[in-house]
Amino acid sequence: DGGITQSPKYLFRKEGQNVTLSCEQNLNHDAMYWYRQDPGQGLRLIYYSQIVNDFQKGDIAEGYSVSREKKESFPLTVTSAQKNPTAFYLCASSIDLGLVYEQYFGPGTRLTVT
Amino acid sequence: GQSLEQPSEVTAVEGAIVQINCTYQTSGFYGLSWYQQHDGGAPTFLSYNGLDGLEETGRFSSFLSRSDSYGYLLLQELQMKDSASYFCAVRDQTFNAGKSTFGDGTTLTVKP
User: Residues with Cβ < 8 Å from A87, sequence gap 6 or more?
Assistant: First the structure.
């Protein structure tokens, strides 16, 4: 089955530690995204990548880093510089066929930093 | 910058029709999407309007008016399982055609 996998589903870390969230897709999509969602709010874009070895900052990139070495993989590192890292993190990929544009989301990772 | 406005909450009864509005202000516009998200889950795609007019997919329809910077999602024959959050998202051209900005979501509660 094609889709996006994110692991782990729940992640707990101590303040001051970097943590990497994984995102893998087998949909053969070029574009991939990372969003952050806080309770009762919408999705905010952290980083996105249109092609391998290229990525762009989204609206809230400070304290985060990404890499895109393979088409299938787009890991997100939450660094100790991120002031409020506890949130629900969603990875997505997209298909663009002109008048059809759809983002596919992974199941998400809930990160708790204490 | 980008800003989207949608109602925070909507309540309706089973079998009814509900409309969720979305108005937007963006520096670039390429299309309007709608996503559904159940509690604790991931968003799932419902519809995309790249052109003005109505798009229909089963019980769900979505409308776009570029001149009014406005769109809506119409849900017909409501079912209990439609209770969820619904997000509109604008695809803009600030960097490229693939960047989306999401609204804060509308929580739909369907009552029996």
Answer: A36, A37, A38, A110, A111
For residue A102, the SS3 value is strand
CB pair distance less than 8 Å for A98 and B50 = yes
Residues of B in contact with A43 (CB under 8 A): 43, 87, 89, 102
- The label of the residue with tokens 């051209």 reads B93
Quote the CA–CA distance of A84 and A76 in Å, as a whole number. 15
Residues of chain B in contact with residue A100, where contact means CB-CB under 8 angstroms, are 48, 50
Determine contact, residues B45/B28, Cβ cutoff 8 Å: no
pLDDT one digit per residue (tens) for chain B, 112 residues: 678 999 999 999 999 999 999 999 987 788 999 999 999 899 999 999 989 999 998 999 999 999 999 999 999 999 999 999 999 999 876 445 467 899 999 999 999 9
Inter-chain touch B43–A105, beta carbons under 8 Å: yes
CA A96 to centroid of chain Cα atoms:
19
Which of B100, B71, B99, B104 is closest to B87 using CA atoms? B104
Distance from C-alpha of A104 to C-alpha of A99, rounded to nearest angstrom: 16
